Amino acid sequence: MAQPTQYQPIFILPEGSQRTTGRDAQRNNIAAAKAVAETVRTTLGPKGMDKMLVDSMGDVVVTNDGVTILEEMSIEHPTAKMIVEVAKTQENEVGDGTTTAVVLAGNLLKNAEELLDDNIHPTVIAKGYRMAAEKSQEILNELAEKINENDNETLKKAAITAMTGKGAEGNKEVLSNLAVQAVRLVRDENGIDLETIKFEKKTGDIIENSELIKGIVMDKERVHSVMPKKVKDAKIALLDAALEVKGPESDTKIEINDPRQLQAFIDQEERTIKDMIEKVKNSGANVVICQKGIDDLAQHYLAKAGIYAVRRVKKSDLDNLARATGAKVVNSIKELSSEDIGYAGIVEELKVGNELMTYVRECKNPKSVTILLRGGTQHVVDEIERAMKDAIGDIAAMLKSGKAVAGAGATEIELAKRLRIYANSLSGKEQLAVLAFAEAMEIIPRTLAENAGLDPVDILAELKSKHDQNEGKWAGINVFTGKIMDAWKEGVIEPLKIKTQAVASASEVTELILRIDDVIASSGSSKGAPNARGMPPNGMEGMM
After folding, report:
1. What is the mean pLDDT of residues 54-80?
2. What is the CATH number of domain 215-365?
3. What mean pLDDT comes out for the span 398-419?
4. I need a surface site. Which of 230, 401, 423, 491 has the fewest CB within 10 A?
């Protein structure tokens, strides 16, 4: 009897590569995503805890902002990085709700894993999730309440909701007022550019003394001590050019044979500087803000003319100053004229903490403002800045869409309820995926309850009962009392965009991860790279 032919196994990957296929690949990916979600889950809600992140240099960050935690963690796992991208997208689009988006993605994958264990094909789950996500967008838009853009009270409530549970909570009244005022001031017909709201942070004072400056604050002092410390009715010139004699760009030699020639050379330099300062004076400017350098001699002439000047200002500050004062940034001193000059009520140098800063304030209709944040330590002001950015992002999103929903888990419970009704109208296995999606939504109120030390089973049962009896679509959890409340009436308000973006991002990344059934990780070394003939260096042995 003929012996069967023995075939040598063929290895197509370089030595050191790792490959995981099928259910193992799916399990590993889902486990990584769940691990990321669990990391930030304890930070969700008003009773969420903070994380302390210490880097290799010993620098410390204390925060409960989801995207900050995930960025500082230096995550390596490729699937975990995809979940971090969800948080970054949420941060870029809305500025708040990063933890919600990540926790949702983690729970969607957890529920998908149970369906995979029941031998439901990943593409069926992905399709069901996609249908549920589309239906969720419809439901959320139906649920949302229209808001009046002139209603400062509602905007303030949204800002307070964003700040609750963060370091700024104790001073949320003061800070929410600053956030609403800042967004109102910079808003124009093109919408709201959040880059025009600048933050300056200084330690050594209480948080309540944070203030909104209708203009720009710069971490710069005047260049000469003889210059006036305070200029009223400031006429401001913004220069993206140096007030100094420019040196030749290439190697150049000047040969001088006579001392008079040297003196003439020095005199010419002085005349050039003098002409520059005359040009500034003729424009009517009494404040010069320069992106580049200012020569010592130029400083002397400016001081003599009673002009306040600062140098080496950041380009972003210069652009914001143009928006605040109405000045035009000039690239050449020769081109400077009275038409390019901006206006501010006061420009002054003030000592904040132990540093001198330049305030440009009382601008007419400023389209760029500064929020000066104060706090006891650097960690405190850093966390307050993150909370303020969340609040400002929420206000901007709310004004853009004109729609808001209630927080406190109310929206997610109502969404889950309506998704279940939708699932019952479907036939086929997609129905199971839609039900799993609906159940995943309940992770938000469940987490809020757990983080507040409440019994999540009791709270969820009571919440569902309220929603099923149609006693109010905004029934949510009051984490401070442990009771059910009308979240809208209690002022727990969030922009619709937070929910729609979180659901969209979480469902998209879940579908992407579910469709992966093969993970091939290269070793990164050239040792196993094929040679010119397409074979590994050691023939068949090198194929392992």
Report:
1. 78
2. 3.50.7.10
3. 85
4. 230
